[in-house]
Each structure stands twice: as structure tokens, then as C-alpha cells.
Design brief:
Blueprint: H1 3-41, H2 46-55, H3 63-152, H4 156-174, H5 214-233, E1 248-259, E2 264-271, E3 277-278
Antiparallel strand pairs: 1-2, 2-3
Helix pairs in contact: 1-3
């Protein structure tokens, strides 16, 4: 049993005992008052008066004693009322303590569940970090092989530029700091280069298409060249250096309008591992 409950139980027992003593004392006082009333208010004949005086001479109480008894009775009533109010206060405190105990039990259960969930999430984060670091060399090798295949179909100067860019990215990856638990890898920005389109041989245009301006054809050629470069070079996360095309999503960048009609937008990419977006 808790110390608080034990103290409350002992206090309740003391109160009950005091209440019983008060009740017994009340009964005694009532009997004495009844006897006093009979002695003071009842008048008998002279013959009976002598007999009553002889038999009850020892039980007669003076007015001073009567007033004293009344005062004691009043004091006992006051104490009884005080004990009743104290008992009600203790009952209320006991009820509040029970409610607090139930609330604490519920909070402790919720806290333990949250701690278990936090521990589980930490384990998941550590496993994901290990898996990401383990897959990175393999993914780099795969993407380099894919880039070699892309470069075979590209013009010579664009292929050379892409190879130079890949070499520069590989050098930055070698100098990248090691990843430790609790730290994040700082983002490494890839080097920017100017895109140039290779001059294409002139083709004979039918007479029906003389009205089409040559500006459109140059625009389409630029878009084709940019698209090829973006597909081979830009699919690399600048934050976590992810190069796996399965984890890189491509979508339209509506803030970058390349052509009004037909409406053509630039491209943006989003990493599926660290959720970084880049152009």
C-alpha cells in the first residue's frame, strides 16, 4: 500500500472512532437532560416530593453544571462538523489522486510507445544510410557505362565535353569527405559549361517550306542538343551524388519556358533518395 493511502486510511479510522465516541456521549447527555427536565419541570405532591428528594437527591444538577454541559455539547457538535468537512475534503483529495495516477499511467504508456518508435526510426535511418553508401560505387560504374553508350551516338565535340565533365566529377567524388553518423555530406556543385551545337550540313529545303523562318530550325537543333546533354550529364544529384536513373525523376520546369508556341518547357530533376531538385 502506498504511504499516502495508508495515511488516509488511518485518518479515516480515527475519524470514525471519534464519531462513535461523540454519538455515545450524545446519548449520555440526552439521558441526563431528560432526567434534569423531569426533575425541574415536574411537580409532585408534597408526599411524593419528600420521596423524590430522597431517591434523586444525588442526581440533581445545579444550573451552573447544566450550562457547562450545554457548552460542552455545543463544542462537541462543532468538532463533529469539522470532522465531517475534513472527511469530505480527504475523499475529494483521494479521488483527485486516483485520477492523477490513471493519467500518469496513460502518459507512461504513450511515452514508452514513442521511445520505441524513435528507436525503430533511428535503425531504419542507419540501414538506409549504409545501403545508400554501399550502392554508390556500383551505381557510378553503371551510369558511366550508360554514358559511354550515349556518347557513341553524339557528335565529337559534345562527346569530348561530356567526357571532360565526367572526369571532373569523378575527381570531386574522390575528394569528397567521408560520411559519419550524425553528419551530412555537403553539396558538390557540378561545373557549368557553355552548350554549343555542332554545325550541321545544309539540307535542301523544298520550295513549299520557304515561308518557314530559319530561326525555328536553329531553335529545334539547340533544343535537341540540350536534350541530349541533359539526358547524359545532368542526371546526377548534386547533394548525394546519386546517379542511378531509377531514383532520379524528370519533370517539366514551368518557370523555364523555352518556346511559346508550341509550348515547350525546360526540364527539372528530383532525387528519390535525398529529394533534392535541380535543373
Amino acid at each position: 500500500m502506498d504511504p499516502e493511502r495508508k495515511d488516509q486510511y488511518e485518518a479515516t479510522k480515527v475519524q470514525e472512532k471519534n464519531r462513535e465516541e461523540l454519538d455515545s456521549y450524545k446519548e449520555l447527555l440526552k439521558k441526563e437532560l431528560d432526567s434534569i427536565k423531569n426533575l425541574v419541570g415536574f411537580k409532585t405532591t408534597e408526599n411524593n416530593a419528600s420521596q423524590v428528594s430522597n431517591t434523586t437527591s444525588d442526581k440533581v444538577i445545579s444550573p451552573e453544571e447544566y450550562e457547562k454541559l450545554k457548552e460542552e455539547n455545543r463544542t462537541l457538535r462543532f468538532k463533529n462538523n469539522s470532522l465531517v468537512s475534513a472527511t469530505s475534503v480527504l475523499k475529494n483529495d483521494n479521488r483527485l489522486l486516483r485520477e492523477n495516477i490513471e493519467t500518469l499511467k496513460l502518459e507512461n504508456s504513450n511515452l514508452s510507445e514513442l521511445e520505441n518508435e524513435i528507436t525503430r526510426l533511428k535503425d531504419v535511418i542507419i540501414k538506409l544510410e549504409k545501403g545508400r553508401l554501399g550502392l554508390r560505387p556500383k551505381e557510378i560504374k553503371e551510369i558511366s557505362e550508360e554514358e559511354e553508350l550515349y556518347n557513341q551516338d553524339l557528335p565529337m565535340d559534345i562527346s569530348n565535353k561530356i567526357k571532360k565533365l565526367i572526369k571532373s566529377d569523378d575527381s570531386t567524388e574522390l575528394s569528397a569527405p567521408k560520411v559519419h553518423k550524425g553528419f551530412t555530406v555537403p553539396p558538390i556543385k557540378s561545373k557549368k559549361f557553355r552548350r554549343k551545337t555542332t554545325p550541321k550540313p545544309e539540307k535542301k529545303i523544298p520550295e513549299d517550306f520557304n515561308s518557314i523562318p530559319s530561326k525555328d530550325s536553329t531553335t529545334y537543333s539547340k533544343l535537341d542538343a540540350e536534350k541530349i546533354i541533359e539526358e547524359t550529364v545532368r542526371r546526377k544529384c548534386p547533394t548525394c551524388l546519386n546517379t542511378n536513373p531509377k531514383y532520379i525523376r524528370e519533370f517539366n520546369d514551368k518557370s523555364n519556358i523555352l518556346m511559346q508556341y508550341p509550348r515547350i518547357y525546360g526540364k527539372k530533376y528530383k532525387c528519390g533518395i535525398c529529394t533534392t531538385e535541380w535543373k
